[in-house]
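Sat 14:20. Reprocessing the chain from the morning session after the first attempt stalled halfway. Input below, unchanged.
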Amino acid sequence: MSIITFISDFGTTDHYVASVKASILKYNPNNKVIDISHEIKKYDLSHAAYVFKNVFKEFPENSVHIIAVNNSDDDSDIILFQLDNQFVITYDSGIISLIDSSENINAIKLDDNKHPSFPEKFMGEVSSKLASGINYTTLGSPVKDIRQYLDREVRIQKNQIIGHSIRIDNYGNIITNISKSDFYNMLSKNAGNFEINLGVDKIITISDSYNDVGIADLFALFNYNNNLEIGMNRGNASNLLGIKNHTPITINFL
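Finished this time. Tokens:
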């Protein structure tokens, strides 16, 4: 039995999720389907990429993943990517470059979509074939020219790191693209003190957990993916600070 994961912006009030799962199980009812999320913001590639990127490597090798989120105005091709010994089926929307910026990812343009008005059903059928052992090279033709996005980069200067918020989670916590390694590397080159500038508020310590501060106090910690996360104990830091996705986050080293 192989694993197929499914992430989409379908929500759960309609039949779309069940219909895609039916197309998977119709080909092979022994395949196991795991939902990652169906509450991705509509057409939001960065949201889908963030959620998927933070979980897909935890699945066994040769797992098959469907990412059914697209923001293109045209009929995007459906591409099969090989990524870290796993398969990803999604649109040629540029989302794969937000998950992995490598330029040498194997990609195959999938043929014979019999569901042009509901291409996610086709994704389901292909995923089930892959999970059942069909050779992926028989499903289409190699392609090199795929859409790509440039993700926001962290700027590192002599005594400053400037990153961005990349995700506001359901609790209002602010996840940034500032890594633990970059932070401590800069800290070691300076006097050991720092300020995370958040408008009128500043954070000058790194916590180990959400409960290291009092209720309604702000904290900063490095989450399990080693990204700097800013939050409020029992509160919503994003609303308090007015920080949304892509807001610059500056750390000054003193």
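The radius of gyration is 21 Å.
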